[in-house]
Every structure is written in structure tokens, then in C-alpha cells.
Amino acid sequence: MPSLPQNDTVDMALTDPPAALNSQRLPLASVEGTLFRISHRKFSDPIYWSRRVTFLKEFDVCEIALGHRLKVVNLSGKRLNPLGIDANIFASPAYDITQRCAAAFMEHPDAPDGIRYPSRKNERLHNFALFSTPAAVAAVTISHRYPLLNHPHLFRLLQSYRVALI
Fold it and tell me: Which residue has the higher pLDDT, 66 or 42?
């Protein structure tokens, strides 16, 4: 596995996927069980995302059941630097760069089904982005869908994140 220079002047600012990414083994993790997603009602398929400001009443909670275990790239903690990337991979507003990096992971010889990255809102939780691999497509089903306002813990969660409703 190629190594990075060991000095304090390495610029880790993400501009493109690392050139040596395909020659490295990815830090893979398994994911199984149920994932949750908040999705705008206007999209019939809650797997896709839109960055549109709207009202809570327009959103649903989707429980995504995974029919079998998937392998995802674990982009948490100390696993980033050996790949030549930093937290900008999941925290950058430059979506063209993060999308190029996601494409590089999709095309990697280790053939991951997605990525796992830390939540910016809660350091104890992780987010997942699943690719359209045959394994991921076969594994994913929406097991339940209900209005966000009907979620039994919604207002406790909003309060814990200091989100005010006006």
C-alpha cells in the first residue's frame, strides 16, 4: 500500500480523489438491519435526496430494511488519512468533489456497496450512502413509511439538537 509523506506540511484539502486510491485496500465494514431516512413526500422513491427548504409536514420517515449484509467503506476516524483524504469527503459543500470521490469508491477493485461516514450532527451516529450495485439494489426495501410529524420521538430529537419550530 502506498504511504503518504510523513511531515506536518501535507495539504489534505480535498480537491479530487487520491490518485493512488485504486492501489489501496479500502477499510470495509459490514452493515445490516434497518436504516432510517427522512425523505420529502414529493419523491416517490425515498432513496434520492433534494436540498430544498420546506416544512416538516412535507416529510416522511422511511425505514429501509436491508435483506442481506452489505459491505461499505468505513470513512470514520483514523481510516481517512491512509487513503489520502480528510473529513472534507463528507463535510464539504463542494458536491462536485465529493461526488467524484464517491464515484472513485464505486469503481474501486474492492467493490463496496456504499460508504459509511460520521454524522455531522451527532458524533455517535453514522450516515450511509449506498451505491446502485446489484447487491445494494437487491438488499434495499422500504419496510415502513410514515409522516415525520407522527414519529414518536420527533420533538425530543428536535429539542436535543436545539432546533426551534416557528
Answer: 66
Residue 5, pLDDT > 60, answer: no
pLDDT, greater one: 72 or 155: 72
Residue carrying C-alpha cell 502506498 = 2
Spatial separation of the C-alpha atoms in residues 147 and 40, rounded to whole Å? 10
Predicted model pTM: 0.71
Residue 123 CA, chain-centre distance (Å), reads 14
